[in-house]
Amino acid sequence: MELEERVAELERRLTALERADGDRGAGGRRGARGAGEADGAEPPLPGGDLWALHHLKSELARAGSPGGGVLYTGSVRLPAGERYEWQYGALTDGLLAADWSGTSESFAALGHPVRLRLLREILGGRRTTAELAEVDELGTTGQLYHHLRQLTGTGWLHTPGRGRYEIPAARVVPLLVMITAAGP
């Protein structure tokens, strides 16, 4: 099946799911936890909250994958105007068979509150060392550079120019997924 045919088929199936899925599932929640859940301010997603899960299950069944799989996706517009769209899926069997030890440094780099704050500030538009140094909670200049090196060394940041930091496009949505998954 050609790419255009596959996309058309996916769009048709998504439309059908959006029309047919009136139930909220999972107690009206978006999976295990939904953004805006505490204050109820977020509008409902079209087709019900679990439309992506229903579609994933359908695709896994079509692919003949009894072990299931995971999918994360996002469409993000940051305060500075950048847009990112990302989707990644993996089969459970492959994930469970893989060696996870190579991920420990990446997780460890996110394991410090100052580094998480740095990433949030960078996503919010502060990109230069000077702008980041203005944030009191980030510590001294030496501490700031230490944390920036940790994040750069593990791929959470890159430097497009001297003293300027960005989160690589391929890491923006995964970072936000991890923050969402780690939340209460």
Mean pLDDT: 83
Question: By helix and strand content, what is the structural category?
Answer: alpha+beta
Largest sheet: 2 strands, antiparallel
Strand segment count:
4
N-to-C span:
42 Å
| H/E element order | HHEEHHHHHEEH
Helix content: 40-55%
Major sheet strand order? 1-2
Q: Which regions are unreliable across 5 or more consecutive residues at pLDDT < 50?
A: 21-41
**Any idea what the shape is?**
elongated
Radius of gyration: 19 Å
Strand content: 5-15%
Number of distinct helices: 8
Brief summary:
By secondary structure, the protein is of the alpha+beta class. The protein has helices spanning 3-20, 51-63, 92-97, 104-109, 113-123, 129-133, 141-153, 169-182, and strands spanning 69-77, 83-91, 158-161, 164-166.
Describe the structure.
The chain is of the alpha+beta class and 184 residues long. 47% of the residues lie in helices and 14% in strands. It contains eight helices and four strands, in the order H-H-E-E-H-H-H-H-H-E-E-H. The protein has a two-stranded antiparallel sheet. Strands 3-4 form a two-stranded antiparallel sheet. The termini are far apart. The model is unreliable at 21-41 (pLDDT under 50).
